[in-house]
Amino acid sequence: MISLKGCHFPKDAVLYAVYFYLWYTVSYRDLEEIMAERGVRVDHATLNRWVVKYSPIVVANAQSKKRPTQSSWRMDETYIRVRGKWMYLYRAADKAGNTLDFMLSERQNRPAATKFFAKALSSNGIPNKIVIDKSGANAAGIREVNRMLKRFDCSAKIQTVWSKCLNNLIELDHRFIKRRVRHMCGFKSFRSARATLDGIEVANMVRKKQFTSDTTSGFRMFAEIAG
After folding, report:
1. What would the DSSP string read from start to end of 44-100?
2. Alpha-carbon distance 14 to 131, whole Å?
3. pLDDT tens across 6-48, in order?
4. Which of 108, 126, 188, 192 could cysteine-pair with 88, CB 3.0–4.6 Å?
5. Domains of the chain
6. Residue 210 — very low, low, confident or very high, per pLDDT cuts 50/70/90?
7. How far apart are CA 23 and CA 168, in angstroms?
8. 3-state secondary structure of 179
9. What angle do CA 164, 93, 217 make, to 5 degrees?
10. pTM assigned to the model
11. What is the average pLDDT across 148-160?
């Protein structure tokens, strides 16, 4: 549950600002004006701190509250510029297009892929197969995860499928992230990039209706996830 101890603004106002920035194509200065029109006077630097501080908490809650996903995965990575350098956003979705997990990495190699797969398995269980493109690093990551499963006496083995066609689903899903990032002024630090991108991913999951909720409001669902 999000604690706003020491914050001088109502919880709904803070969550609304965070959700609005993650969902819509606005800058922090635009959001400052939008909030002012709604009677909340807050500067753009504070809005940035709210997004970086509270997005990771919402993400942690989201993984435990999302609907069950399917056991056939699609995995790919896309490029994100941070501090003027290209970094890599690892992403996975099931065959129905539901977001499984995501991880920003400074490197694109076997250890990074292994770390991502281990993270995804911890929150989604063990899939039957993972569809990837021709990336050798990603294939090596799956092999390493299978070796880890074997060491823990787990009989399950993840099948690796190389298919550009089947992986189009996750590649097309990158568009929501790229469209949102394209209009930002750029990330100044790895920490802020990771927190913001994680928050955008959860907003995307809200759009896909991946959470059990009676509400039809995207913001109310986001607030419920935040707790």
Report:
1. HHHHHHHHHHHHHHHHHHHHHHBPP--SEEEEEEEEEEETTEEEEEEEEEETT--EE
2. 39
3. 778 888 999 999 999 999 989 999 999 999 999 999 999 999 9
4. 108
5. 11-67+186-226 (no CATH), 72-173 (3.30.420.10)
6. very high
7. 23
8. helix
9. 135
10. 0.91
11. 91
